[in-house]
Each structure stands twice: as C-alpha cells, then as structure tokens.
Amino acid sequence: MSTEEFDYELPEELIAQTPLKNRSSSRLMVMDKTTGEIEHKHFTDILEELNKDDIVVLNNTKVIPARLIGLKIDTHATIELLLLKELGQDSWECLSRPFKRLHVGTKISFGNDLLQAEVIEKKENGMVVVQFSYQGIFLEILDKLGEMPLPPYIHQKLEEKDRYQTVYAKTVGSAAAPTAGLHFTKELLEAMKEKEITIVEVTLHVGLGTFRPVEVSDVTKHIMHSEYYEMSKETAEVLNKAKKEHRRIIAVGTTSTRTLETIMSKFGTFKECSGTTDIFIYPGYEFKAIDGLITNFHLPKSTLIMLVSAFSKKEYILNAYKEAVKEKYRFFSFGDAMFIK
C-alpha cells in the first residue's frame, strides 16, 4: 500500500490559522461510512446526529506549554526543545532544533537560568533526552517559559493559550491537543447529557506521532512513536455494558480511537489499564471498539487520514475531502469537523 494513495490537493488558504470565535460554530460534514453519502451541517447539529443511549468518548489530556526556546550556555546559540515524553526524575524525551548543535553534555539555559537542561542522550531524527534542573515547581516554570506547541502549518501566533485546549482537558502531559475535541463547548456537552447521551473519558498524551510525517513510500513500513494512555475502571464498565447492549460507541478524535482500539485489541474487552501504544491503523484494519468517529480534516499522506480511511473506505474519504475543498471547509487543527457514522 503506497503512501501516495493518501494524497490530495489542498489550497493553502483552506488551512485554518486561527480558531473560530465560538468553538462550536465550525462546520460539520456528516458521512455514512458504508455508502460514502455526505451531508453538510454545523457542529451544533451533532446533537441531532447522536442518539439517546450513545456513548461518546473524549480524550481528557491537557496540553503543556511544551515548546521551550533557550540558549546554549557555551556559545549562546539558540536551541528549541519540544517536550514529548516525561521519563521520570526530571528527564524528558524531546524533539530538538538544530539537532546537529547538540551533543551529550550540552547545557541549555531558559529564562536567564530559571530552567537549565543538559543533554544526557542523543538519539535519531532530532530526538534527545535531557535532564532538567530548576528551583521550584516544574509545571509552574514551564507555564512561565514555555509556548503552546502549535503544528508547523500554523504560522499565526495564538492569542489565547486555552484555545489550543479542550474545555474538558484535565490530565497534564500532552505535546499537542486532541483537536476534534476543540469544537465542544461546556453548553454543548450539557445538552448532550440532557439528551441522555453518556460521556466518558480516556487519556492519551499526544506525542511525536502527531508531528512526524510518513516518510516511507510503503505504508506498512512506517513505525509509530509510542504514546501513553490510560482508562479508568468506570469508563471500562460503561463501555463493556454498551457493547453488550449493542449501543453505539462514538470516539471523539483519532487519539480516543487509538486508545479504545489498543485496549480492545490487547484484552478483547475494555478494562482499567494504562500503558503505551504504538498502534498504527490503516486500511485493512478491523475495528473492534468504535462505531462512529468525530474528527477533523487531516494532512495529506498522514497516519490520521490513513486511520479514517480504514474506518470507512479510502475512496469515500478522498471523495469527502475533495467535496470539503470544493465547499471551502477549514482544514487541520483549527478547522472544521467530520462525523463518520
């Protein structure tokens, strides 16, 4: 299966640079996964699309201001770190830039020595492991010095930090937002509960998989970076009951999807657990956990467009994307949404 098969033409002006003023005023394309039939709606119409007794699964990860810009202590050269995974005892796996300037033992200062990092391991593809030293509470220092790690296709500065955060974000540790969740407001979630739609949460801390493009021509040769996930006992019980009663499980976003499919693939049931996943879902994969997917419009040739193609049919997805371009939908992180049912 070729990576080129998941390419499509996208005019640059359709890449959303800023979030809409009102989160839920985005557009919503509704697509039947078995027929490819499309309807054009607004995101608030998701209330009509969801049935009483549906289970909606949110990823409650909270983005940390993971982008740090500092100076090499010896040469004062500018160094950028993107914190991806906490390894314990103040050491982190990071994406670094420029990678060639860093060596084991390199020391970097952030915020006039409010925070220091020492490279303790140099990996491949821009990856380093650093040891941080500081006085005080790490997350408070990060909040002061760090920036929200917006994807590289967003060139405008984000005016309000919380707009790259879902309204239900609570478990700290993500390097990127689960962007399908950005469309939900507290009012919309309340209206869903009033309709007796059950809402449960899982956690998947989004890491390098979001930033790393597919660089191999054969899809099956791509290796996903592992990401931390967890599911509570309460969520597992609700989902197992729903499966037994043949109620729909709707994942909000590819991150929730990957968490649910990982657990179901591993255990054959939902259960209280945590771990890391490098599950890579592409056409040919048989879904075991979800019945519907709320998602955004994804980058050409990305692992995310491969996942949504696996959930429906590649031809239907590419046709839907072509229609979205024609109808001038907004694409990617701050863009419009799609409900595949």
Report on the architecture of this protein.
This protein folds into two domains: 242 residues, QueA-like, CATH 3.40.1780.10; 79 residues, QueA-like (Thrombin, subunit H). β9 and β10 form a beta hairpin. The two termini are 25 Å apart. It has seven helices and 17 strands. It has 341 residues and is an alpha/beta fold.
Can you identify the CATH superfamily of the largest domain? QueA-like
SSE order in H/E notation? EEHEEEEEEEEHEHEEHEHEEHHE
CATH class placement of the largest domain:
Alpha Beta
Question: How many beta strands in the DSSP annotation?
Answer: 17
Sheet/helix structural class? alpha/beta
Main sheet summary: 9 strands, mixed
The CATH topology of the largest domain is given as: QueA-like
Give the DSSP E fraction (strand runs of 2 or more residues).
25-35%
Tell me, what's the shape? Answer: globular
Tell me, rounded to a whole number, the average pLDDT.
95
| Model regions low in confidence, pLDDT < 50 over at least 5 residues | none
Helix content estimate:
10-25%
List the helices and strands and how they pair.
Elements: E1 27-31, E2 38-42, H1 46-49, E3 55-59, E4 61-63, E5 67-72, E6 78-88, E7 91-97, E8 107-110, E9 115-122, E10 127-134, H2 138-145, E11 171-174, H3 186-194, E12 198-204, E13 227-231, H4 233-244, E14 249-252, H5 254-267, E15 273-277, E16 292-296, H6 303-311, H7 314-326, E17 337-340
Parallel strand pairs: 1-17, 3-12, 3-14, 4-11, 14-16
Antiparallel strand pairs: 1-2, 5-6, 5-8, 6-7, 7-10, 8-9, 9-10, 12-13, 13-15, 16-17
Helix pairs in contact: 6-7
